[in-house]
Description:
binds adenosine-5-diphosphoribose, alpha/beta, six-stranded parallel β-sheet, 11 strands, disordered N terminus, single chain, globular, about 15% strand
Amino acid sequence: MVLWCRRALASLWQWGPGGVRRPISLSVGASGLFGSGGSHEKEKLSLQDIAELIRSRACQKVLVMVGAGISTPSGIPDFRSPGSGLYNNLQQYHIPYPEAIFELEFFFHNPKPFFKLAKELYPGNYKPNVAHYFLRLLYDKGLLLRLYTQNIDGLERVSGIHPSKLVEAHGTFASATCTVCRRSFPGEDCWADVMADRVPCCPVCNGVVKPDIVFFGEPLPQRFFLHMADFPLADLLLVLGTSLEVEPFASLSEAVRSTVPRLLINRDLVGPFAWHPRSRDVAQLGDLVRSVETLVGLLGWTEELQALVQRETGKLDGQDR
Ligand code: APR
């Protein structure tokens, strides 16, 4: 992770006028939703309080940050869970160390391990789960300011959340780029090759075509910089299914104003929720689906969510036929 952090932190520097590199400030405002804190500060918030803020629409600019933990219920392994995490199961790819599978230097040396992994993760093999459809409900109800995801499985799009509300911070399979002539292609143009264990090649220059997944050392998508406008605006932050180990994404969790409530839904306490907690943090730990269903119950959205899951899953099953 140090490798990724060091390189990714470099991407937090922007080229200013005249090519001068300057750091981007992840802004944190002074006061916000509940006054400026201090002696009148409400005692610790509960999950019930967070649900009430959403249900009553006291919070209407909800920012969400997610990681691989929201897709494990769909059958996609996350990266770091002991035993089941992807980084514990890469032996078959014969790579020098786990993160190499997302490193350009190794990719140019041997792209096959990445494409074997891509074959497993390619959109179309998995379906969204209740966690994705909870976020879709936030979107449908006009409460979702933006969803920042580290995931490359595309399940947020499949769940029906409009791409304008998404920041796919670590890229996507939806598009691909030739590593030689830099021509861009729709992601589905690579699908047949990837499924047939062939390395996709550019029809023009025969260079290797790589899905637009962000590799270590590559700059994050331009849309990532929407955070500079989004996070100072947010009045509630939800963080689901991530270890918050990878920068610069993890630092976003501290970019909301200091008085904005933050809810972590995860197996365990991670990142700033563990080592730099704030007075209005709430952590709902344990199984992610159970935690989401508890929150949805407190919101009074259980039936609505069940109907949405049934309807959308039926549509996807219909497409499979
Ligand atoms: N219930 C609750 N928590 C879960 C569940 C579950 N069913 N499944 C996984 N989790 C939690 C794990 O305990 C872990 O804290 O989700 C988190 C997933 O963390 P990671 O595996 O590190 O995944 P993520 O945070 O998305 O990784 C970030 O690392 O290598 C890079 O580019 C890669 O985007 C990825 C980034």
